[in-house]
Amino acid sequence: MEFAGTGVVVTGAAGGIGEALARRFHALGSTVVLADVLEKGVWGVADALNTIRPDSALAVVADLRSEDGNRRLVETAQEHLSQFGSRSGIDLFFANAGVGTGTFVESTPEADWDLAFDVNVHAHRWAAKYLLPRWLERGSGYFCSTASAAGLLAQIGSAPYSVTKHAAVAFAEWMSLTYGDRGVRVSCLCPQGVNTRMLSGGDIGDSRAGDVVRSAGVVLEPEQVAHVVAEAIIAERFLILPHPEVHDFEIKKTADRDRWLAGMRKLQHRVFGDL
Fold this sequence. Notes:
Number of domains: 1
CATH topology: Rossmann fold
Number of helices: 9
CATH superfamily: NAD(P)-binding Rossmann-like Domain
Structural class: alpha/beta
Shape: globular
Radius of gyration: 18 Å
Number of strands: 7
């Protein structure tokens, strides 16, 4: 996929990876719709992009915890991008919004589980539900989602985060195998440590998990991740790994899962002590 002249939607675009993605796609020639529940942040990014190129960015305040919120976002973006972007409307939908709530099963409130599934998983399928009819009719479309290295490996500490990120990877894989021969391309971003609010413990149940991520490898800036993502989408690669070591970790996990689990339990003990 080439970005010039395309219409792109990015969720969770008020900051972090989402903002960096929107800025990168915009720099490559896309008209972008930026969606986030944080009104001030998403409007600020859109205003900055429109200063660079008038009528090239639209901010949408969207709560993606419901099907209706995702439906309204897709409809609003389609209408706007059909007018100001490409004639086909939404060419790429990047489901980037995510949350990192919760800790252990016995102590995580049900509301945190609901929030994690709604944002990290259900928002992806709700968006796809309203994107696919048009994409399948015209024979083209691109769906990309942000999961996590935790979706390929695991995450100590937060059960909702680990479980929902695995589900996000599974949904992206299902989308690719189901619609890949009908013109719908799919990619899944699985980063490890990225310098965002989530990593610092801003919206995750226990910041100690973030310390583990920092110790596991290089912490990238969101702009570095966005650069890798853009290259992967141009090449139409499914799995996007800004941290190449995640691939090596996944090989070790699948080669000897029992040994890998034992090592993760040791790591968990060092971080959390006796549970």
